[in-house]
Amino acid sequence: MKVATKAYGLIDVDEHQKISFPQGLFGFESYKDYLLLDAEQQPFYWLQSADRQGLAFIVINPFTFRPDYELTIDNEELQEIDLSGPEKALIFSIVTIPPDGGPMTANLQGPLIINRNTRFGKQLIVSDPRWKTKHDIMAELGAGSIVPC
Predict the structure, then answer these.
(1) DSSP per residue over 18-46, as a string?
(2) Total number of domains in the chain
(3) CB within 8 A of 130, min separation 6: which ones?
(4) pTM: predicted TM-score of the whole model, two decimal places
(5) Residue 11's domain is classified under what CATH number?
(6) Torsions phi, psi for 50 (to 5 deg)
(7) Letter string b/e over residues 53-84, b meaning 16 or more CB atoms within 10 A of that residue's CB
(8) 23: domain range?
(9) 53-99: pLDDT as tens digits
(10) Is 149 part of a structural domain of the chain?
């Protein structure tokens, strides 16, 4: 199928790239269908709205820069997206790149969890005080043993 994207213009995408968020994302609840696209710069991805070209998020696997990242997820929340356990999940954090050149940050307090098989997703709010809405990705990469791609 052809989709108009923010980053790449009109492109062909595979149906397997489609992810549905039945409740939408926080602040964007009316947009339910997205596409997960590889970004030109790894380890990032684009989460592109299937319905609105200008609505796209840069996302990253939080374990890339925080291998100690842990989520405690209520089974009821997993069941909402037909997920029996976290081993079948893709987990992403939304990235913010400030226009003023400030640090690129990731939201570890509001992760996206996606069922690999059904391609249904949900945005969670975690209450663990270790995880904030703005984690400096480059600083945390530099502090850990993970080497950026």
Answers:
(1) EEE-TT-BTTBTT--EEEEEE-SSTTEEE
(2) 1
(3) none
(4) 0.89
(5) 2.30.290.10
(6) -80, -15
(7) eeebbbbbbbebbbeebeeebeeeebebbebe
(8) 2-143
(9) 999 999 999 999 999 999 888 878 888 888 876 678 999 999 999 99
(10) no
